């Protein structure tokens, strides 16, 4: 009984007048309704997971699409000039201060006067040498003739020979800028950690007990987002048409005249969004060996089934004789019939198969070609009839960079 009590007369009247009898198919209808509600919940969870996956892929694309700018060394001009001025002040402060008794730096007129004085002294020294050469030719007892240098000898003072400090102007050369070491030039190296996208082609076969192997084909798009040097996230979307052909083992004691199930052939369509992790095992130049593992969000729809029956009949011909009926001939007739089921064509089933594969990839310029055998095992329902099957196949993936590759430059000082 319910804990809630009726609150008005209307509800009491409805409870009192409730005389609807139990319908024969009411429980079956309720079970179908509950199954439909649970199916809606699974579909809602599936689409929520798909939306979360798309958001994750978008975030990964935004993170990896930001280019890494090469390191640049910026040198401001003002600090360099300030350092040069500080050095110039330091060198000036280290110079010895000029003595008060020493003359200051000569001006332009003083420099011209000194040049004129040097020219006069040079001329006088030439005349003095000429007089000395003449004196050597004369008699040593003869008196020397008077020359113009006698006045210079009389006015000569020895205090002019006192050594003095050198105080002429010193020329200093200051560099305008500081030369920086040039960066070493390396050959361009393209980044391998770039988002790649492309197409994939699948050839696969479903395996189960008592089946006839059949090949199924699919096509889709692939997206590889590198997470590190060796690890990448593999995702995308693919569609394929699947089939499963199951043969019923023959029965030894089959009843004659009744149809016996011989073979069931299922058809459905798969849509998959894989979420896998790819790891590079070994790399030899342009050839790499990889391992993939992960799950996939799988949706199957449009399931149809063809049931093939065989009916065996024996036709016997008897003849009436005096001793009774006599068997004249006996003939066995087999009739093959098929029945198609389309009731589950509109049912959507959500599952998550486990994926494992080992492949080889070859890099040609900016394009990567991958060949990968794989195995998928369903985790949950894979079809509307909840068939338990294992999928084995091979995948060919052709991917290229999402953007034009940027050469990775390295500046080393």
Compose a concise summary of this entry:
This protein has 413 residues and is of the alpha+beta class. Helices cover 25% and strands 39% of the residues. The radius of gyration is 54 Å and the shape is elongated.
What does this structure look like?
This protein has 413 residues and is α+β, with helices and mostly antiparallel strands. The chain has a domain at 35-62 and 192-250 and 266-306 and 339-403: Porin. The chain is 25% helix and 39% strand. The protein has 5 helices and 12 strands. Strands 2-3-4-5-6-9-10-11 form an 8-stranded antiparallel β-barrel. Strand 9 and strand 10 (367-377) form a beta hairpin. Mean pLDDT is 73; it is low at 73-80 and 94-106. Residues 86-149 are annotated as: Disordered. Keywords: Membrane, Transmembrane, Transmembrane helix. Residues 86-95, 124-137 have a biased composition (Basic and acidic residues). The chain crosses the membrane at residues 43-63.
Provide the fold topology.
Elements: H1 9-16, H2 26-65, H3 77-94, H4 108-137, H5 149-155, E1 189-190, E2 196-207, E3 216-226, E4 231-247, E5 259-284, E6 287-321, E7 324-341, E8 349-351, E9 354-364, E10 367-377, E11 390-401, E12 407-408
Antiparallel strand pairs: 1-12, 2-3, 2-11, 3-4, 4-5, 5-6, 6-7, 6-8, 6-9, 9-10, 10-11
